[in-house]
Request: fold
Amino acid sequence: MSKRRLRAKIAAGVAGLLVVGLLVGDGVLIDRAAPQAGGQPGAARADGPVPRGAEAPRQQEGRPALPEPAAAPGRPEVPTPSARREAATRHGTAATRADGEADFAGLDDRPSPAEQVRRQAAADKVERELSAVADSPAGHRSGPAAASGSADPAPGTAESLKAVGTHKVFVLAVEFGDDTTPAIGGPAGPVHNQIPRPDPKKDNSTYWVPDFDRQHYQDVFFGDRTPSFKDFYRQQSQGRFGVTGSVTEWIKLPHSEAYYNNVDYGELDQLIADGMNGWVANRKAAGWSDAQIKAELATFDTWSRASRQDKPDGRIDHLTIIHAGVGAEATGVSPDQTDDPRYRDNIWSHSSEPLDPVDVGGTGISAADYTIEPENAGVGVIAHEFGHDLGLPDLYDTVGETHNTAGFWSIMDKGSWLSDSDTAIGTAPSGFGPWEKLMLGWVDYTAVRYGEGGDVALDASDAKQGDNPQALVVILPKGPDGKGRYYLAENRRYTGYNADLRRAYFRSDPDGSVVQRFGYEPGMLLWYWNRSYTDNKMADHPGAGQVIPIDAHPDQISSDDGRAAPVAVQMYDAAFTLTPTPALDLRWLNRNEDNIKYQARISAPSAPAQPVFDDRLWAAKKLPGTAVAVPDTGTSVTLAGEALDGGTVTVRLAFTKPAAQ
Reply:
């Protein structure tokens, strides 16, 4: 693919832009609940954000240790669990979210030490590219029009996460056998098509179809429809990256799911070996020769993960495993709660790699990096885990519940659980944010150095309209530790895979399967990228993280019984808008000290339009643990106008002397 022309347009020169008239002066911050003049809630404030009450992260008791397992008869000895934990970061503490779902440290995204180094090197490379773009002439010597960039479609390097071209994915479907061990216990199986059909009156979240057959997965993964795994990556990359592949028949494994999934015995490496060798055995039973089997596998080995180049490296490029039964993530049970059979018998969807590559049937081609999802996985979890396979981290707080991570705004957070219907969750995810697309090389952007004010026109992040960029990067002064800091602005609309931000949900009963729907409001979404951090574990470092949306309305949303609303609810009005926010009204079940359920209410009144972000105001009052703390640089980012359909917006940058100086 030839390199795309780098383009930018200042808003004043964009032909045909129908701007809703708005000129704003000094930044104001909206307090949605505090009474103002005349006793009306939601009036404009100019004294900074209202602090939200911090909530301590919920801790889990450590799980009891099981004895180190002996090698199973008939297969090589594997490292003990303690040796595995010393060799690679496999397990972590967990906390259950306030909405009944669980967050895990290192259990969803399990990068190797080498992959962690690559991710940091990739961020370094992106920083260098941003600086080069910001300094490049583009018709003007200063201002946004002087610095525009586009994702580089050239192949990636060992120090890059850029993903281009077409990649082939081997989808291995496995169901479980009867063999288990007394030390582990658990039932036999499951086999596929045993998931009960949900009662719509009691369950509007479980994804179910009458037959999870091979064709079902062929459609979910590689169908030309929307949504599908293939279509998601085609749209998100704007055609720069594509996936193809095939799905196996259901392969019967010898052991139960509980056997493979036991957290201390760590048998997922064995699951890969048993599954791939089962596929080889089926091929031989169908009359395939060793040469034919190797030739078929070779079609899945055309790319080197280490060099990011299009050349074989003896490993299957992308292995995705579908396992029979539901995923542990659907149960809301922490992996440290190993006495609960809902977790011990269900595999948590994740991306990882075995300690050593697994040779496939003596072919000389091995299986290594993999993702794994349940039988009833929708496009969301499949695409989320593949994001890890491409090198992206989780954007949620994997340590404990906080009140400002990405929520439904990114598929690398809870956006993987959005849906295109009201009968299930997880079938139609939201898109990537601008940071993820920068890392992968998939976004047209404008980069602006600190102090270069002006107007920039942005097209919708998921529906490019013309020559306008889809992201604005503001290069801020470096932090006290010398690390880079950036504001990233995008235009979020109900287009493409962001259309189902209308169907955000809240699990009103943590013990049940009923969800309430509400909408995330479109507008200018602003992110803060802080290279002083490599994760969003705000429970570990309150108020700070790697890349987090800046909430336009950061004052805390709470229930009438005093509980802070879950992060996914808190962030519904995070975008900066020209129109008032809608009111919010949800019901939340809880249990009192006598273990009796009662119903609470989460509500927030409509707040006036909030089009202006001024970091002097947001930095004036610290909100540790509840909202991202931004630097006081005197930078303001304003949503100054938008087309009638919202497809193009005008973003105005201004810089003043920081209030702290």
Notes: Residues 164-389 form one domain. The first strand starts at residue 29 and ends at 30.
